[in-house]
From TrEMBL:
<feature type="domain" description="Sulfatase-modifying factor enzyme-like">
    <location>
        <begin position="50"/>
        <end position="459"/>
    </location>
</feature>
<dbReference type="InterPro" id="IPR042095">
    <property type="entry name" value="SUMF_sf"/>
</dbReference>
<dbReference type="InterPro" id="IPR019866">
    <property type="entry name" value="Glid_motil-assoc_lipo_GldK"/>
</dbReference>
<protein>
    <submittedName>
        <fullName>Gliding motility-associated lipoprotein GldK</fullName>
    </submittedName>
</protein>
<dbReference type="InterPro" id="IPR051043">
    <property type="entry name" value="Sulfatase_Mod_Factor_Kinase"/>
</dbReference>
<dbReference type="GO" id="GO:0120147">
    <property type="term" value="F:formylglycine-generating oxidase activity"/>
</dbReference>
<dbReference type="Pfam" id="PF03781">
    <property type="entry name" value="FGE-sulfatase"/>
</dbReference>
<keyword id="KW-0449">Lipoprotein</keyword>
<dbReference type="InterPro" id="IPR016187">
    <property type="entry name" value="CTDL_fold"/>
</dbReference>
<dbReference type="InterPro" id="IPR005532">
    <property type="entry name" value="SUMF_dom"/>
</dbReference>
Length: 474
């Protein structure tokens, strides 16, 4: 009897000392103590490529120098506090924005081809030799068998807006060169994305960019919390045509010869490192969502999963102004001020020096229109062109009450920002005089308007409890 009891006790010890499975089983804790599972290491924020870290702090927000205009819409000085965040070191360039629109274009093309391929899909690992190779990944022979969750969701018709069985196969190369089209069905699908022959100029094949729309959704959290109902009713669905409006170079200047910029500025490689313009506030927000999705998809593709990526967004005007000052208290300009030239007489930003003079002296560094990013000195936080070049969209609405009724702790009017047609624009541009480049100067534009002098840059929050950030490679 004693021998049997000893065997049972030994078995009990072996079971209790064995490592647990990945799933949750048994009672929580360790040796009767409340011990959280998982690593005790602190979270380290990963600095995204092309961004710099802005340490949180307090500052006096508003005009640091004399406000000559003295209008009520201008920033009335007050002390506010903002958290730490990452910020693009430059304005989003044409090259970066082209990655966005090309990805949307490719996604639409792959969706059309997958629908046309139907059930007669090719094999996994196809090289695009036939339209069958473009079938949905889940319908290809040789594809891994669906797991229990995928089978269940497919039987239920998928989630709203997403169907696992309609996952695109991005490994198959797309062909936009007509001589490389694999078959007639492929040609039929791809040609439907181009302007019809009767609308072409000089018979040039051009994508019908009005059809290239980015679809996404976001949650109106403030309204949901106010109504105590976190439900799908507060999801806002957006469908945004993403191609920038290149006609701004003509529309903004009716009596100026800007046709070369209209023809070349966005797509020509000579301008790839210039800031993108002709982008509305809604398009800028769509870009932020795409950038977030791109990082999230990458993290999910890794064998060793990373924590969900913090979302990218437009900065609030408080965050923008704090970053623009570069750590200098009451800085009139990103470099401090009050002069607009350095000791050698070179300009510190790209702007209009005098009435009618957009380029006083090339040797002094001025440009007739926009300038390539990183051409002028960076500020104390490592940010380029926080004054001049192009003005920048912010998340914040523009109204007399913006400053008065926003909090002094991370001022943010997200719910009002979406509904207000006027959005705050900061930084001044290549066509503006020096006064409009001041860090505290506020300007505005309607969110559905695109301009030849307005661009944007993105930011990403840094959790307050995060440790020192680590760099990412290109």
């Amino acid at each position: 009897m004693k021998r049997i009891l000893l065997i049972l006790l030994s078995t009990s010890v072996i079971v209790s000392c064995s490592k647990g499975s990945k799933g949750s089983a048994g009672k929580p804790g360790m040796k009767g103590e409340l011990v959280p599972r998982g690593s005790a290491k602190s979270f380290i924020a990963e600095r995204p490529y092309g961004m710099v870290s802005i340490p949180g702090g307090s500052f006096v927000m508003g005009m640091a120098d004399q406000d000559f205009a003295a209008t009520p819409e201008k920033a009335m000085p007050k002390t506010v506090t903002v958290n730490s965040f990452f910020m693009d070191e430059t304005e989003i360039t044409n090259a970066e924005y082209r990655v966005f629109i090309n990805a949307v274009r490719d996604s639409i093309a792959r969706g059309l081809l997958a629908e046309a391929a139907g059930e007669g899909g090719g094999e996994e690992g196809g090289d695009g030799g036939s339209i069958g190779d473009y079938a949905y990944a889940g319908k290809k022979t040789g594809d891994e068998e669906a797991n229990a969750y995928q089978k269940f969701m497919e039987s239920q018709g998928g989630r709203d807006g997403y169907n696992e069985s309609k996952k695109l196969d991005w490994k198959v190369p797309l062909q936009y060169n007509t001589s490389a089209y694999p078959d007639e069905k492929y040609a039929e699908i791809l040609e439907s994305m181009y302007l019809p022959a009767e609308k072409r100029i000089n018979n040039e094949r051009i994508i019908d960019w009005s059809k290239i729309k980015y679809n996404y959704q976001w949650e109106d959290v403030l309204s949901a919390v106010k109504d105590k109902d976190r439900s799908a009713n507060y999801l806002k669905k957006e469908s945004i045509a993403v191609y920038p409006d290149t006609t701004v170079w003509i529309r903004d200047f009716n009596y100026a010869y800007n046709e070369p910029l209209f023809d070349q500025y966005f797509w020509h490689n000579a301008y790839k490192e210039y800031p993108v313009v002709g982008v509305t506030w809604d398009q800028a927000r769509a870009f932020c969502d795409f950038k977030t999705k791109l990082k999230t998809d990458h993290n999910n593709s890794l064998k060793k999963k990373k924590q969900k990526a913090m979302r990218f967004r437009l900065p609030t005007e408080a965050e923008w102004e704090y970053a623009a000052k570069g750590g200098i208290e009451n800085a009139s300009y990103p470099w401090g001020g009050p002069n607009l030239q350095d000791s050698r007489g070179c300009y510190l930003a790209n702007f209009k020096p005098k009435r009618g003079s957009y380029i006083e002296d090339e040797k002094k560094g001025n440009y007739t229109y926009t300038a390539p990013v990183r051409k002028f000195p960076k500020n104390g936080y490592g940010l380029y062109d926080m004054a001049g070049n192009v003005a920048e969209w912010t998340e914040s609405p523009y109204s007399n009450s913006t400053y008065e009724f926003s909090s002094t702790l991370n001022p943010y009017l997200s719910n009002q920002a979406y509904r207000e047609a006027k959005k705050t624009v900061r930084g001044g541009s290549w066509k503006d005089v020096g006064y409009l480049l001041m860090t505290g100067y506020r300007d505005w534009e309607r969110k559905d308007s695109a301009r030849s002098f307005i661009g944007f840059r993105t930011i990403q929050d840094i959790p307050s409890g995060a440790g020192k950030f680590k760099r990412t490679t290109k």
